[in-house]
Amino acid sequence: MKQFGKILKFELKGYLKNKVFLGVTIFMIAAIIGVLFFPRLSANLGSDETGNAENLPVMLVHCDNAENESVITEAFVSAFTDYEVVAAEDNEEEIKQQIVDENAECAFVIKSLTEYTYYVNDLALYDANTAVADEVLKSAYQMSAMIEHGIPADEANQILNFQIEHTSVTLGKDQMQNFFYAYIMIFALYMVILIYGQMVATNVASEKSSRAMELLITSVHPISMIFGKVVSSCLAGLIQLVSVFGTAFICYNINKSYLSDVDIVSSIFNMPVHILLYMLVFFLLGFFLYAFLYGAIGSTASKLEDINTSVMPVTFLFIIAFIVDVFSLASGSVDSVLMKVCSYIPFTSPIVMFTRIAMSSVSVYEIAISIVILIASVIGVGFISAKIYRAGVLLYGAPPKLSSIIKAIRKA
User: What are phi and psi of 241, to 5 degrees?
Assistant: First the structure.
């Protein structure tokens, strides 16, 4: 235990003094502060410059039939709240020129209640203005037709704007609400495993290439060595994540009133406690499992140049789990047979089981079985990695084959 403590302290100090580690952490914290303070700054600057007036893009509405102009313009003002809707008296060519000159963002030239032309300079990918205009003119046409057939305007308006009442009762999980929690876990674990797993493998390979490993292995037990390296990298990753997300949590609470309309941000910071706890459990166990594998493989590499090639199978293993999970999330089938099977496979369960917990109703015993299997796998892989680490001292030259590693482990 004393050896483990010394290795842990030494490796952790190395991470915390690393300029790249510090630089990335500071950059991420600064970016989080900038993003979460931006709404407050933009609101304050906007109030100073415009006296709380909103600078909305201009939408021109021109009606060929003057009788319908006031009604249609009023309807467009109600429908397009993100625009400053202006009734245009100019002809069609002048309207087009105003859009080209960027005096207006878009324009509707309405020939009749059933026909119009939409002008815009650059059509955005998700421009839904025509769909909204279709509904506005459809309602106006129906209203006009009802009035022509003798139905009073107030009754026609009541018929067209009849509201349907409904109540939704969620007996299980709200997938839309928990969707972001699953994505946060997936991408956080993906980045941490690829970054810190690679760092563990690189550190081990560096010691081997400098022959320092041969000296260390004679005075320090291999289990203390490999566990010290993996735990220190995990702690370094947690310190970085706590620093970033802690800063984000503080900044969110400071700017909460300015971020209340951003549903994604509010959903993330209102994460239920049980979801957060499950995230931490699967995050830590998943990281330990892959970090031990990276450390073991790093000990078999004779040169730093061999690291990328050596760790590729482990990286592909996690990428497969990542792809299975992301595609299941995208399709909404998080309880498919493939996902259920992957929930109990140690190399995929950290992200797959958490996704199922967040997005569907999973029984407690299923979660318990997955966690127990994962814990047993972490311990087993840890001890096997220690043996590979000890045997790796003797493996020099070309990257060893699997049979050579197994023989060396038996002798270790």
Answer: -65, -40
Start-end of H helices in 220-347 = 222-254, 256-259, 263-269, 273-300, 307-310, 312-331, 337-342
φ and ψ at 329, to 5 degrees?
-65, -45
End-to-end CA distance of the chain: 21
Position 135, amino acid: E
- Residue whose entry in the numeric block shows the structure tokens 């022959």: 211
Contact indicator for 328, 353 with CB cutoff of 8 Å: no
Specify whether the CB–CB gap between 56 and 104 falls below 8 A.
no
3-state helix, strand, coil in the chain (%, to 5): 70, 5, 20
Residue 3 phi, psi (nearest 5): -65, -45
**Tens digits of residue pLDDT in 169-196:** 665 666 666 777 777 778 877 877 777 7
Query: Hey, what are 208's tokens?
Result: 């081997």
Q: At what angle do helices 273-300 and 364-392 cross, to 10 degrees?
A: 20
In this structure, the chain runs to a length of: 412
Strands 58-63 vs 106-112: parallel, antiparallel or unpaired: parallel
Closest to 133 in 3D by CA, of 79, 82, 89 = 79
- What was the pLDDT predicted at 279? 84
Contact (Cβ atoms closer than 8 angstroms) between residue 399 and residue 306: yes
Beta strands in 64-105 (DSSP E): 84-87
Query: Which ranges in 306-348 belong to alpha helices (H)?
Result: 307-310, 312-331, 337-342
Strand partners, 119: 107
Q: Which amino acid would we find at residue 174? A: D
Q: What is the dihedral of CA 354, 356, 358, 364, to 10 degrees?
A: -80
The strand pairing partners of 109, in sequence order, are 62, 117
The confidence band for 53, taking pLDDT boundaries of 50, 70 and 90, is: very low
In Å, how far are 68, 111, 282, 379 from 373, measured between CA atoms?
71, 69, 12, 10
| Separation of alpha carbons 106 and 119, rounded Å | 6
DSSP category for residue 86 = E
Place of tokens 């003094």: 17
pTM as predicted: 0.66
Angle, nearest 10°, between helix axes 273-300 and 312-331? 150
Please give the Cα distance from 292 to 379 (Å, whole number): 10
Question: pLDDT band for position 372 (50/70/90)?
Answer: very high
Note the pLDDT of residue 368: 93
